[in-house]
Design goal:
Radius of gyration: 14 Å
Low-confidence stretches: none
Order of helices and strands: HH
Mean pLDDT: 88
Number of strands: 0
Strand content: under 5%
Distance between the termini: 23 Å
Number of helices: 2
Structural class: mainly alpha
């Protein structure tokens, strides 16, 4: 593994550990509101909010 990969891995693990309560909350919210396949509007919004809150995909 290169140094860049190791740094990325460390950052991902840190972000997961730091935000694990938020991830669990989103997971529980999605589980409480099941949606039909290809009509997962609540799920998409919940994941979008979580990704912004937790700096995912930035």
């Amino acid at each position: 593994m290169t140094t860049l990969q190791e740094m990325a891995k460390a950052q991902i693990l840190y972000d997961i550990d730091t935000n694990k309560e938020k991830y669990l909350l989103v997971s529980h919210q999605i589980h409480e509101k099941p949606e039909i396949s290809n009509q997962e509007f609540f799920c998409v919004k919940a994941v979008d909010r979580a990704s912004k809150c937790c700096r995912l995909f930035s």
